[in-house]
Request: fold
Amino acid sequence: MQIQNIDVSSYPNSKKIYVDGKLHPIKVAMRRISQYPTVKIVDGKRIETPNEPVTVYDTSGVYTDPAVKINVNEGIPRLREQWIEQRGDTEVLPEITSEYGRQRLEDSSLDAIRFPKRHAPRRAKEGVRCTQMDYARAGVITAEMEYVAIRENLDNAERGIPSHITPEFVRQEVAAGRAVIPANPNHPEAEPMIIGKGFAVKLNTNIGNSALSSGIEEEVAKAVWSCYWGGDTLMDLSTGDNIHATREWIIRNCPVPVGTVPIYQALEKVHGNVDKLTWEIYRDTLIEQAEQGVDYFTIHAGALRKHAELISKRLTGCVSRGGSIMVQWAVNHGQESFLYEHFDEICEILARYDVAISLGDGMRPGSTNDANDEAQFLELDVLGELTERAWAHGVQVLIEGPGHVPMQKIKENMERQERVCHQAPFYTLGPITTDIAPGYDHITSAIGAAIIGRLGTAMICYVTPKEHLSLPTLEDVREGVIAYKIAAHAADLAKGHPGAEVRDYALSKARYEFRWKDQFNLSLDPEKARRYYMESRVNDTETDQKFCTMCGPNFCAMRISQNTADRCDKSMD
Amino acid sequence: MQIQNIDVSSYPNSKKIYVDGKLHPIKVAMRRISQYPTVKIVDGKRIETPNEPVTVYDTSGVYTDPAVKINVNEGIPRLREQWIEQRGDTEVLPEITSEYGRQRLEDSSLDAIRFPKRHAPRRAKEGVRCTQMDYARAGVITAEMEYVAIRENLDNAERGIPSHITPEFVRQEVAAGRAVIPANPNHPEAEPMIIGKGFAVKLNTNIGNSALSSGIEEEVAKAVWSCYWGGDTLMDLSTGDNIHATREWIIRNCPVPVGTVPIYQALEKVHGNVDKLTWEIYRDTLIEQAEQGVDYFTIHAGALRKHAELISKRLTGCVSRGGSIMVQWAVNHGQESFLYEHFDEICEILARYDVAISLGDGMRPGSTNDANDEAQFLELDVLGELTERAWAHGVQVLIEGPGHVPMQKIKENMERQERVCHQAPFYTLGPITTDIAPGYDHITSAIGAAIIGRLGTAMICYVTPKEHLSLPTLEDVREGVIAYKIAAHAADLAKGHPGAEVRDYALSKARYEFRWKDQFNLSLDPEKARRYYMESRVNDTETDQKFCTMCGPNFCAMRISQNTADRCDKSMD
Reply:
């Protein structure tokens, strides 16, 4: 299989750099963007002043390292395999332990779509606690913890930017449940990253086919594409055929943690008939996916039977697939949700694979009208209770949040979540701040995401322009990721994340000095910035002119301002 | 001349309605979107429940009224001509009084590009005060004031939505300087609108050619296009050839107030040589443009000689064209800015044409690094002083604001502006909340615009995806306008603007009931929403299916949720 139609070979003037760990033999990947010098002509002489390179957080993995040869049929290098092996806390299982996984393996009709390479699954040894939270509580700084500490700081130390984010700080945050490092030992391809209020705001992207569209190749391409543009984690929300095989291809080629919503696949297994769902089928699905390497599961264990009545009072009912499935199941069976009833058993399974739990907000509002209502906050209280139960098992916890929330109601969401969920990291979908712009919901929601990110939300789940209308194309994934990189970075600036302003400063300096190429290269989307600029310059191959088509040569404020400044400088000599 | 390549004929399922005034014989235009009924099948019987139409604020003027035949060579109907005539406060001048205007008129080489119809200019009679502010202070509710009061409320009264926005409230706000109705008697084609904290947040769009690109036809098309998508006012920032003629075409065909920055044209008159600018040339330009019908002028009278030194300390100097021109002029001449020195004379001229003044922020930060610095706030203090001077002449005042401001520094901008500028309406460009996303600055800035709109900014100036890179195309204008409609509406919801939530409610209800066509028709961009939906449904002509390609038929949360709700309803029977 080839990755179709996408170019993720490199960013212009960037190179991959690797920073060594001090506690562990690790190499932390980041991207360094070199710059052209500042040129001034003084008394007819050309004076060049060099500009420091700018190092940026890099989610693109080995795809942008020319030293690594990519073969999608092999999967990417298994970065963490040795670390995990050396910890000695897991055992390699002789075979897949989920029933469904075994069935698929034995079905030779699936050979054509199967990922060609097999890796035996790992699981915590009997009685051994192996999650990042367990280690953190035990006072151990894992390789993953040191990795994320270095990653968050980039080359700040070199630049003299102070930072409170040390490996020990990471350990404390993970131990307290305020941060999560999703790190299933069965996904050693993923580069460690951290989700927590005390760190850079992260963004998740959703991909996945539905019964109506999208094949395996397309989904792998979307996954790589999403990482290239800046997605920090990736949820595979596939609901159509061949979920198992699609997921395997994605995980083996994915340099960021992968999340899923296991109830989707469980429902496929009973052919979409909610009433036929059982705990046993769901349980087998958890194991199946954990052994493939899923790093976090969205589990709607807070959507309860009593929510049915509250839903019926709403304008837009329940808009969470997982939530609506579980409430329907509970109502139809006259029983409480099996996710809630079996929650401790779920945690026992997750703990053995260090799969983090992302407690789903099945009752998130589907319209601004329903924001902050009884259904939503009642579920949030349940999530708070479940957080403590999961932590008791050493399972790392994220709390999912809305959804559709008008601006004036955003703050209450954050404050309430922190209070009732004991500061577990908040992970929100947007929120969308007005319902009237289908086709532009990456924008309606980037507004909400920036605001809630600033208030302390640790990860924001992207929304593409196709939200509410259809599945995103590659171009939509790019638009969604960039909109959310903007929201996350705006929030990082506002939070005072160490060194967040370095890139803004460098890009603005390049802009002011008419170093157009540097302006493009430092931007979130160099290709688009350059294309927009060049489109208006049809007769012109020279980029570094001292004006653009916006104002033309006579009206460039920055040029006039520089002339004035130069004159001021001289008059002060 | 034809309006090229744009379709502004109608919105689907919409009709233009006109609401009668009570105090004045006026007809206030708005757009009413009809909806399909809600259909339920109960016991095999089809039950239809009608859905109320939704009325929305409409900036598109007669372009969307099929009863009006558009002829760009004629201009659109002169709505306010009779009102102005009847007030008897202005006189029709026998000829254009600006020297430059007369030269252009007499130059037969310009006949080919000249707008074919001539209207004699109007000016306040000697000694008569004719601005909306003068009338408001005198206790008079003008037709314009009643028009905007009705317009802000749409059909809220019919829907039982209370509103404090009465004609008398409008009068009080205008009298106090807290709101502005830009209404030059020489632009009677414009439908009255109001800019103030107590009203819906408005958005301005910028168009205009530079020396490098864009002709008259293209600019008129952009103007109409901008109004069609929702621009509340329009600034013509042309700096290339034929500014005078381009502006005439735009104004005669523009149903919203038009603003300009007269210094741009003044500079063209001296062939781009800042040092040759004089007060006399500038003064003549003010009169020339006022007699064409420009409704508000951006005047950078707060950019002073002493700013030069402050600019030179900044990362990105001065990024306002007008500001940089004036500071350069002042430094080079060793004199104070002639805009500041002649400010009272400027106001005398503006008062006679009821041209509002938009005090330009020549010192707005051009990078997040420079936000809220000494240069910016020193100028703001000057603008506060100038506000009171303009008000003394009865001239309506807007205060322009930044620019590039990180989220955590936005609030200070709003609070300080209100304090030092005596609550004159704030009119901000964005602000852009991070500098790292050229190509996406409609998004970086929609975040800032929504936040500052919520805090009380009265009008937000759009930014297109091409900002910092080149001039916008028609498609960019549309993207910019919609991004800002989103920001403005999100702010209106948060501010509790009367009835703002009606459209969100209706669209969400349509979404939940799978009335896809209504969902499209109620949206800000029906064409795009429909196109995105249909693109993924290649084999399918039926729109109103109970699912979309995002989740497919088995996984639609809203369908499952409805089934559950129906079941709950039944079990409660």
About this structure: DSSP finds 22 helices and 17 strands in chain A. Confidence is low (pLDDT under 50) at residues 569-573 of chain A.
